Amino acid sequence: MPYTAPWPPADVLRSPRGLALAVSLLLGVAAAVNLFSAAVSGYAYSLMKRVTADPAAVAEGTLDRSDVLTGIAGALQSLVLTATAVVFIIWFHRVRVNGEIMRPDAFSQTRGWAIGGWFIPIGNLFLPYRTAKETWTASTQFAPDGSFRPVSPAPVTAWWVTWVSSLVLDRVSGYMYKRADTPEALRDASAVAMVGCVATAAAAVLAVLFVRKLTAMQNRKAGQGPNAAL
Hints:
Blueprint: H1 17-53, H2 62-102, H3 113-116, H4 127-138, H5 154-179, H6 183-224
Helix pairs in contact: 1-2, 1-6, 2-4, 2-6, 5-6
């Protein structure tokens, strides 16, 4: 349902609460799946370490089990990532539009970049972050006297830095897996993959904090108006 708030009639504020709840739940599932994947990578690392030390000590079928677990973890990651990305981007666009209604002068890009920025190679490493920071600024209430009152963007920055780090680790581990032709190389690739999965899980948790905080900021500003109450 549209908000009732003192904003220009050119656009209508729409509550991001439902989407925020949905994306928070999906991010929680994503964090759990990536921790499972980290455990699988840790198992593969331990297994390759044993193979390197003494191949005869590894029971028959153990390598197949590791491959099956890796395949399951990868499939779950892909499924959850797709679902989470779709809902997150819808939420992201919603709060970006709300932010423009609340404060049009806070943005350097059109609202379409809240979606398109995610799909531009290289650009997707910084364009969504710019949109997130500008939306954060636009959603911040002014002080009761109308002066600007900054709110620390630490939740935005922490989420984004962790997310980009997880992407880099994922690319590195994928490259290492493709080139791995020895147990030692597979061991090293598994180690990087394990760290990458933990980083992705951390990014998901930080994303939940970002989503909840920004949604609360917009709800407050929509209910109270541009200036904070005394």
